[in-house]
Amino acid sequence: LRLENVSREYLDDVVKRSGLVCDERFREICERQGASKATASRYSRELHVERTFATDSAMTAAVHGEGAEERVAVVCRSKINIFNVESGERVAQFDQDDSIGGAAFNAEGELYVSNYFQGNVSVYDRAGVLVRKFGSEGSEDGQLCLPQGISFTGEGELLVADSGNDRVQVFGKDGAYLRKIGGFLEPLGVCVAPDGSIVVACWEEVHVLDNEGAFVRYLGSDGFVRYLGSEGTGDGHFHFPQGVAAGPRGEILVADSERKDIQVFRRDGVLLQRIGADGDSKVDLGSVKSVCVDGEGRVFVSSNGSLLMLS
Fold it and tell me: pLDDT, tens digit, for every residue of 259-307?
């Protein structure tokens, strides 16, 4: 039992009275719990819809920049819409292939979009011009089969959830194949946390890896777990997790299209809240396709054909 994670009432009423914890240890637990609350995640409170970016059939999204220059790309079936986050104004719109998998901006503001049926990745400059493509359909190294979620590491490497090949592939930003990470069943979403940890959403489970691609020491009595959560409809369970994102403090957000909600976990796996029609933050999300987070911790989620910004 991780005592710093239980309520103060439980500490006072049960732990202290049990006599199983010495006074010095009890004070240490209370101090640690107080420090944790002082630095509580913004996701410990209720979130609301701050803005809706109206589009035609929003499938996935990516966010880049900050302040007045922050942009969000909303990828639809045949168009990509770029909005200014602060004003809500659409600043660009351009055509794209009708086979969307995932989307991500690199540090320079180029937009990468994985093409699900074509087995490749398209790269657009800030003006919306297609500047290059890389990858081809297949199962060899560097080839893709039904690619879905994508995400950049802090070093500028691109992770691609290669769902048809049951792996995550790593590419340079120029499209050069670097390596692969296996051990998944149809990975659907991928993201990189601030500490470099890699989070991969698969059928009914979410894997957490270190920055080298090895499973992390995380939860469970022996310190090892292969996945965060398990199949089901209860808190901390998954049914069809399609999108994952990492918050500013390493929180893990999991968008589940069958549950029609987003579950937010602390980096150690403790559930902070559920966002959904009957969640802690009551937002009617419908079938959730993807989720991304900006530097302020605002949540962008594609749902019911539009993109919602929650804060």
Answer: 999 999 887 778 889 999 999 999 999 888 899 999 999 999 998 888 9
Residue 111 has pLDDT above 90, yes or no: yes
For residue 87, give every residue at least 6 positions away whose Cβ sits within 8 Å of its Cβ, in sequence order, or none: none
Instruction: Return the half-sphere exposure (C-beta side, CA atoms, 13 A cut-off) of residue 310.
Output: 26
Q: What is the pLDDT of residue 32?
A: 64
pTM of the predicted protein model: 0.84
Asked if residue 158 lies in contact with residue 172, where contact means CB atoms within 8 angstroms, the answer is yes
Chain-centroid distance, C-alpha 37: 24
Kindly report, residue by residue over 25-49, the tens digit of the pLDDT.
777 777 665 544 444 567 888 999 9
Written as one string, the DSSP assignment of 136-154 is -BSSSTT-BSSEEEEEE-T
DSSP code for 26:
H
Residues 286, 303 contacting (CB under 8 angstroms): yes
Nearest to 189 by CA among 134, 262, 135: 262
Q: Which stretch of DSSP H or E encloses residue 282?
A: strand 281-282
Q: Which residues pair with 301 in a beta bridge?
A: 291, 308
- 3-class secondary-structure state, position 183: coil
- Cα separation, 18 vs 20, whole angstroms: 5
Alpha helices in 6-92 (DSSP H): 8-10, 16-18, 23-38
CB atoms within 10 A of CB 185: 12
Hey, what's the torsion of the CAs at 209, 292, 151, 187, to 10 degrees? 60
Amino acid at 106: N
